[in-house]
Amino acid sequence: MARTRSFTTADAVRAARDQFWEHGYEATSLADLERVTGLNRSSIYQAFGSKQQLFALAVESYLAEVAVPRLSALEAPGAGIDQVVEYLESLAAAMAGTPAPLARRGCLIVNTITERAAHDADAHTVGIAYRDRLLRAFAGALPPETAAHRAELLTGSVIAVLVTARLTPAAAATLARAAAIEARTWR
Amino acid sequence: MARTRSFTTADAVRAARDQFWEHGYEATSLADLERVTGLNRSSIYQAFGSKQQLFALAVESYLAEVAVPRLSALEAPGAGIDQVVEYLESLAAAMAGTPAPLARRGCLIVNTITERAAHDADAHTVGIAYRDRLLRAFAGALPPETAAHRAELLTGSVIAVLVTARLTPAAAATLARAAAIEARTWR
DNA sequence: CGAGTTCTGTACCGATCGGTTCAGAACGTA
DNA sequence: TACGTTCTGAACCGATCGGTACAGAACTCG
User: Fold this and answer.
1) Looking at chain A, which residue has its C-alpha nearest residue B117?
2) C-alpha–C-alpha distance, residues B179 and B166, integer Å
3) Neighboring chain B residues of A161 at a CB cutoff of 8 Å
4) CB of residue A121 closer than 7 A to nucleic acid strand C?
5) C-alpha distances in angstroms, A20 versus A109, A128, B59?
6) Cα–Cα distance, A181 to A186 (Å, whole number)
7) Subunit contact A156:B149, Cβ cutoff 8 A
8) How many whole angstroms separate alpha carbon A167 and alpha carbon A169?
9) How far apart (Å, rounded) are the C-alpha atoms in residues A18 and A53?
10) Cβ <8 Å between B118 and A124
11) Closest partner residue to B26 among A26, A157, A174, by Cβ?
């Protein structure tokens, strides 16, 4: 009875997410979002309500499609140092192996922390949750005696890798490898 | 012969720097800069030329008055693990000891990396230089055999502390302390 | 005091911001 | 084919952006 939608929300969110990821929230204008999604303003607003809501969906998409998949092996029950090392090495490989313009995007969540967490409650909540999830994943894969202390260091290393990626992906890869080497000595 | 300036550029730059530090470059408007400096737009432009140039001076001021002083003991010839530990502990103390709204500013340079380095050449250069300086300072204070590898990890920890500060200063302090404890085992 | 210079407040500039409105094209259904 | 609905493009909204022009207040010096 009605005209069918000519786009999928998932595709549009992904396109918007990549733009937010690379340029940040403030520096992404509605004109940018129109361009990357291929949609008109009115379609965007009809489908998503506002720039902020689209951003929230972009963050959700990032977590589901980018962050969590890489984390899943580390979060699996029975994960140990091997999984920690693998995680760090996969991070290093991602930094070294993806084209620099892509790697330089770093991490949408980490970027959002520095840009928005201090003054936006949603961004703060998302940032806390992400950091906490990393921390728990590492702690769960480490011997209980040293877990708390070393999980802090590893979580810090991951955050630093993703910040350094914005500067020099190669340096980020070096850092991720250094962390992997350190973790390997904990076997 | 001429009217004397009723403000010092150093004071104005400091005020602007604190605003940029807390809110970032994009989110700081000329109206904000007028407010925090107590100066009119025309005075700001007459004295500094543009928002970008004022930002460059703010970064310079941050390096000279905030970043370098804390780094000096670590960079001194003869510095060793003790100075590394002291640096990390002073960072932890700063995170835990300054009022949360101030600590939550994190680091102007690190914030600038995530906000601007990917698309602004000046920001990229400043970020590279800062990271490199941290790296060299740590490397110079560590035994040559392990220096390269561990300097990477420590530089990463510092960056992560300053990102985490934007989220939760207390968590940033915990991370800095964890790094200090780790470094202490290298004595 | 008065000349010379600098600083300051206001008002304004075009551009762009996020967001809204609405007429009509496009399409599925009957 | 004709109806009902949805999507789309363009034009527009007030607000704010960084930046400028200029007249006059403020002040130092001769």
Assistant:
1) A167
2) 18
3) 156
4) no
5) 10, 19, 25
6) 9
7) no
8) 7
9) 15
10) no
11) A26
Task: Give chain A's end-to-end CA distance (angstroms, integer).
Answer: 63
**Mean pLDDT across the stretch B56-72?**
96
pTM above 0.85, yes or no: yes
pLDDT digits over B83-123, tens only?
999 999 999 999 999 999 999 999 999 999 999 998 899 99
Q: Kindly list the distances between the CA atom of residue A16 and the CA atoms of A24, A43, A48, A55, A121, in Å, as whole numbers in the listed order.
A: 11, 13, 11, 8, 21
Is 80 exceeded by the pLDDT of residue B2? no
B91: exposed, middle or buried (Cβ count in 10 Å: 0-12, 13-18, 19+): buried
* Number of Cβ atoms within 10 Å of the Cβ of A132: 12
pLDDT category at A1 given cuts 50, 70, 90 is: low
pLDDT at res. B3: 62
State pLDDT tens for residues B166-186.
Answer: 999 999 999 999 999 999 998
Q: Regarding predicted confidence, which is higher, A38 or B129?
A: B129
Q: In this structure, are residues B19 and B33 in contact, taking their beta carbons and an 8 Å threshold?
A: yes
Longest dimension (CA), chain B: 64
Locate the chain B residue with the closest alpha carbon to A163: B114
- CA–CA gap between residue A60 and residue A27 (Å, rounded): 20
Q: Which residue has the tokens 């605003």?
A: B19
DSSP assignment string, B91-149? HHHHHHHS-HHHHTT--HHHHHIIIIITT-HHHHHHHHHHHHHHHHHHHHTS-HHHHHH
